[in-house]
Design goal:
This protein is α+β, with helices and mostly antiparallel strands. The chain is 38% helix and 19% strand. Helix 2 crosses helix 6.
Length: 228
């Protein structure tokens, strides 16, 4: 919790951050949050049911609270609602995906994908009410066009995307991480500046009335964590 008490450090204002939860509250909050996030799944079957734009705005504002190298915030969240533009994105993405499934991916990769039931067809790109395309910015552009260095860009944008996915789930919506490779067509279609690179595409909306997800399990705590 940030309050108005502050002090000046090296000429810059620093606000006091304080913790107002006791140990038992912290334990309960951690358990409740895990139980909620454990329900999260990547969904490919979307409904075209509308979602208020204000919800998308709050989701993006949540993602923008992510930490970033030197607080440069090297991201742009592009929200696509236009049906015409969604169609163009789907058309271009499926062309790249077709090339990947038919030649770019190794047999091992294709075999690993089989339990997920994926292929080059991506109808969700045209059905979901919104597409959020996250762009990373290796550098910013100053007023005179000079390059301003950003730091830990991939790490910063990756964290922001994780928080974006979490915010989508917390809002009661679903999404899917989609990374058609290469993604340069997104820069062209969305007319993004030269200092932005497409990082991740997420359809966002309600699940279809019959949305099925693969019957898979997450690794156990012992498999993913070591305590020293």
């Amino acid at each position: 919790m940030v309050n108005e008490k502050y002090k000046i450090i090296d000429g810059h204002k620093h606000l006091l951050y304080s913790d107002n939860l006791d140990v038992e509250d912290i334990r309960k909050e951690a358990e409740l949050f895990f139980n909620e996030m454990d329900k999260r799944r990547s969904v490919r079957d979307f409904s075209d049911k509308p979602v208020p734009k204000s919800v998308i705005e709050d989701i993006i504002k949540t993602a923008s609270t992510a930490p970033s190298g030197a607080h440069k915030q090297p991201w742009t969240f592009c929200v696509v609602e236009s049906q015409d533009l969604k169609f163009k994105i789907r058309e271009a993405a499926e062309e790249e995906e077709r090339k990947s499934y038919e030649g770019r991916m190794s047999e091992e990769w294709l075999n690993d994908l089989k339990p997920l039931g994926t292929n080059h067809s991506k109808p969700f790109l045209g059905i979901a009410p919104y597409l959020i395309i996250v762009f990373k910015k290796p550098y910013d552009l100053g007023n005179d066009g000079e390059k301003l260095q950003n730091y830990y860009v991939n790490e910063s944008v990756g964290i922001a995307c994780g928080m974006l996915i979490t915010a989508i789930h917390q809002a009661g919506l679903v999404t899917l991480t989609h990374t058609p490779s290469p993604m340069k067509f997104l820069t062209k279609l969305l007319q993004r500046p030269s200092n932005e690179r497409a990082f991740l595409l997420l359809p966002v909306g309600h699940p279809a009335d019959e949305a099925y997800v693969p019957d898979i399990e997450r690794k156990t705590l012992n498999e993913i964590a070591k305590f020293y």
